[in-house]
Write a structure and sequence with these properties.
It contains no helices and 11 strands. With 109 residues, it is mainly β.
Length: 109
């Protein structure tokens, strides 16, 4: 199993960004996948999830602003981040069970 995140960067508050997670070693549409984030001095937070049947879920802190999706043909998981706030600043990881990638930094100023 390999998970490789990309798409992070710096953006002003109110802006948008799309994160990608390229996966390999398993069929994406058979897995429960999550996006989690870790900010300095804060606990890790699960922000979005997608089940194998496509059911999605969101943390209250991002509901209505973030959208999780996947492209099964490309084996890629996405997280669309809209209406970004400074408190969204964190390292974002995609995860499958206990496994996660190296993360991609999102900085909102």
């Amino acid at each position: 199993v390999q998970l490789v995140e990309s798409g992070g960067g710096s953006v002003q508050a109110g802006g948008s960004m799309r994160l990608s997670c390229a996966t390999s070693g398993f069929a994406l549409n058979t897995a429960f996948m999550r996006w989690v984030r870790q900010a300095p001095r804060k606990e890790r937070e699960g922000v979005a999830s997608i089940e194998n049947d496509g059911t999605v879920g969101y943390a209250d802190s991002v509901k209505g602003r973030f959208t999780i999706s996947r492209d099964n043909a490309k084996n890629t998981l996405y997280l669309q981040l809209d209406s970004l706030k400074t408190e969204d600043t964190a390292m974002y990881y995609c995860s499958k069970g206990q496994q996660r990638g190296q993360g991609t930094q999102v900085t909102v100023s």
